[in-house]
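Moderator note: this is an archived Q&A kept for reference. The question asked for a predicted structure of one protein chain; the sequence and the answer are reproduced below.
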Amino acid sequence: MEVHTPKAKCLTIQASSEQLPESSSSIIELVSGIEGKQEILREQLADETLQPLFLQAQSATGTEESKTPKFVLKEGVLYRKSTSHKTLNEPETRTQIVVPVNYRKQLLDVAHDNPQGGHLGVRKTTQRISKNFFWPGMYQHIKEFCRSCDTCQRFSTGRDKTKAPLVPMPVIGEPFFRVGIDLVGPLYKPSRRGYKYILTVIDYATRYPDAVALTNIETSTIANALLSMWGRTGFPRELVSDLGTQFTSRLMKKLLELCGIKHLTSTPYHPQTNGLVENLNKTLVKMIKAYSQQRPHDWDTKLQQLLFAYRSVPQDSTGYSPFELLFGRKARGPLDLIREHWEASPTPDPVPVDDYIKDLQSTLKMARDIAQEHLMTAQEQQKIRYDATSRPQDFNVGDEVLFLTPNKNNKLQMDWTGPWRIVRKQNHVNCDILDERLGIEKRVHVNMIKPYVNRLANVYCIVSEEDTGPFSFWEGDREIHRNLDKVSINSDLSPSQQREVKGISAKYKVMFSDLPGRVQGVQHKICTGDAAPIASPPYRVTGKISECIEQEVREMLDLDIIVPSNSPWASPIVLVKKPDKTVRFCIDYPNKITQNDMYPMPRLDDLLERIGKAKFISSIDLTKGFWQVPMAPEDQSKTAFRTQGEDRPILFLSKKWHSSEHSMSTIEKECYSIIWPIKKLKPYLWGRKFTLQTDHAPLRWLDNVKGTNNKLLRWSLSLQDFTFDIKHIKGKCNVVADALSRAP
């Protein structure tokens, strides 16, 4: 069978945003690369999308003006003619060239990416192009082109400020069940005692605040301040903070673990998670700023008095003051003292302790129930107002997104960085993103990211006909060797993506096989010049490795990869373990006579520079890829290797008796004839069981007589490292040993 296969090569143009060509090159291609009307006409006629427009132009009759656009032919070139009204009295007739599909991309580059294009929006770019050109679906193409512009996506516009719907925090009913903490400072004006930071704490149930002035924000200082506060209120069950190093250090984690406190953290640049303490900080700083106008260095001494002002004022969300929700009574402040003095109110009668406690409990329960109802109502109203300008942000694992830069160093810095890839979703509003180029992973709120739109790549296919000759396949049942279960799919893909990959694998299952193919049209040649054949001795192998070699050789023989050979060349076998614990069969050619081809190898830094900006990197995992390249017939003998197959004699041992050995008894001579060859053949015999054949019957009773002869005892002990049987055969059957002993 002969197969004539077209040899195709795909060239990807503008595969990534970092590889965008300069727009000036597009101008040069459109101006100097086009020969004029003849080429435009040729491209228009070859464009299938323009054929219906040619039919409209050919069927058009009359020259009357029409309010609807129409297509006309001028010297064979297709135009679009339309009338627009800039004003009521000045209609404008516009004649546009209908652009073939091959030139649309370059026109979009010039109109948008070129410096004269200025990266303007869809409307301005459409106005610029439609002044001279038109093609079917032009507005949608311009919209997609501008939307996928990498540069435009990295700069903020008003439309970028989309936010996800509000997720209210759960309403807490138990005081100091959950508290929020944060740090304020360093303050512009430190106190006389060196305080320039404030640790703020607020209770989520009662909105009761607390604060401590600090000289530094080391973890040990903050830990001592928290223990001091918790000595008055008790240990909370949950603590909410940002990701400051003081709150996430090992010391703080250990403290919270010992106190049985669950630590909750907000995502970076999303303070709304801990909005209560942020509002407390804002109000507290405003009060300190107002007090500091009179005494700028004594604010730390008045900190608790400023907190009293915050605690004694009713909250809009609860309807009660934090002091009243916590203590069950109203705070007696300066205004209450003035009123009591003016009214000269009599001292109230004393109340029994039991009655006071019961009344206090009922008052606290009623106040907290009402406060929870007010909180829920306030949250519902807040969510309605917030969601009026929000939009659901639906991201999936694997999506590419841009991350908003919180702080810019200059006005020319881009607002968005990326693209990042979503690797996992924590909940509806938090997800983990990864910069695959830098290997940086971070957790962000969905309000800090937006989808990244990739620009579609233009792929051109260059096809050249080439006769590759006969193409022979392996003449076996390949179907039994195709196992899609061995195809591993990345677990980070979404379920729908995994199903899509499985579908593609099943569709092209012919590509997944344990059997190697065979390349046609090329052969591997080994140039050794006039060098004589080289035969290297094989490496020593153990029994298990020998079994692996035999199995590999059988498989290669079945696949017609190797054939038996009597070549004078020989090289040893080497088995190399693969990462998947399987074995790779290799031949070691340790000679220096092979003449290498002096082709330049690509430099590593050049390869990294080429692929460093790529968005996708793929590799082909061939089944025994090197074995798919056939060897040139004249060089096949040079690839010979030695294997264990048929049993052949590999060694003949003989020894002449010395004068001292002649005086030994017959039994000693027979025993020595065992000791000497076993020691010589120890590398082959040690660790395996073997059989010793002899025609001397007394050796069978060696174990019985060794105790009466010291020499036999020593020899018997030296043989304990070996496992063997002594088999007696008749003298007439031991012809090999007799023939060798009688040979001249």
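Archived answer notes: Residues 399-451 form a domain with the SH3 type barrels. fold (CATH 2.30.30.140).
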